[in-house]
Write a structure and sequence with these properties.
The protein has 14 helices and 8 strands. By secondary structure, the protein is of the alpha/beta class. It folds into 2 domains: 48 residues, no CATH class; 181 residues, Spore Coat Polysaccharide Biosynthesis Protein SpsA, Chain A (Alpha-Beta Complex), CATH 3.90.550. α9 runs parallel beside α13 and α13 packs antiparallel against α14. The N terminus is likely disordered.
Length: 291
């Protein structure tokens, strides 16, 4: 910094910066006209203004980005409060958005005090998740099913792993062998085939979601289609911590029946069989009560 440059800031306390009077006088001489290190006004402010105690913490918060958790629901009165209490306990810093597809069992009354926003949208998981994304404030979207339990430390794990998008592994809390086909064997098949489904809790940057155009509003396989396009944008993060996924749907339909139906539909999807055909198979074998 030149002496002439310092002269432009008459209110700066030079003794506070460590200069003695004799140093200031020498700096006015021709000998010290040559700059040693040029400081900007921003540098001077940092040198003279004490750091705010929460500045680093706030900077980290802004840098990591707010995570919006988007949850599509339909007639979830029996489990929605338990799910949201767990979510608040383990992901309390996130924005929680519930998107209802026309529940008739009082889901709204049970959920509205446990979430940041409660939205209504036409029935259909893709339609509901897109509506939630439009109403979200976060830089990162995390799409979670309401019949799961998120792991502890989930938000930090997402922040640490995220590039463009990713997913969690899942675990069905039942020791029967058939469930290992779903939460273990199917995981490695999915890695081989580069496919994944929505019960794994997809997360992605807002920019990636907008680039994709959101979930394709299909009656079935909207999650697989979304993942297929997301994978093209960059590396997909796989978080080994498990989402605990309810076995309720399996028990209602029959674990072997549902597992084999999912496997057949996934295979036909990879063979590019039309979605309308897959939807017809699902409706016939799984009653298609709610999606």
């Amino acid at each position: 910094m030149h002496a002439g440059q310092i002269a432009k800031f008459p209110k700066i306390d030079l003794q506070h910066l460590g200069f003695r009077a004799t140093q200031w006088q020498r700096m006015r001489s021709e000998r010290f006209r040559k700059p040693i290190h040029v400081l900007s006004l921003h540098d001077v402010i940092i040198l003279t203004k004490p750091e705010m105690p929460n500045a680093r913490q706030e900077s980290a918060k802004v840098g990591s980005g707010l995570i919006s958790i988007i949850v599509p629901v339909l007639n979830e009165a029996t489990s929605i409060e338990r799910f949201l209490r767990c979510l608040r306990e383990r992901a309390g810093d996130a924005e929680v958005i519930i998107v209802d597809g026309g529940s008739s069992d009082g889901t709204f009354d049970l959920a509205r005090n446990h979430c940041d926003r409660f939205l209504n949208a036409p029935r259909g998981r893709a339609v509901q998740m897109n509506a939630g994304a439009r109403g979200a404030s976060g830089d990162i979207f995390w799409f979670v099913h309401s019949d799961c339990e998120v792991p502890r430390g989930c938000l930090q794990q997402i922040a640490d792993a995220l590039r463009q998008g990713g997913f969690f592994r899942i675990r069905i809390p039942n020791e029967r062998f058939v469930y290992r086909l779903t939460d273990s064997f199917a995981h490695y098949v999915g890695l081989l085939l580069r496919a994944r489904f929505g019960d794994h809790g997809f997360f992605c940057r807002r920019t990636a979601f907008e680039k994709i155009g959101g979930f394709p509003e299909l009656p079935l396989m909207e999650d697989a289609e979304f993942f297929r396009i997301l994978r093209r944008l960059g590396r997909i993060a796989i978080i080994p911590s498990r989402l605990i996924s309810s076995s309720r749907r399996y028990e209602e339909i029959g674990p072997w029946r549902l597992t084999l139906t999912y496997g057949l539909i996934a295979l036909l999807y990879l063979l590019r069989v039309p979605i309308s055909v897959l939807t017809a198979i699902y409706r016939k074998t799984c009653a298609f009560q709610k999606k």
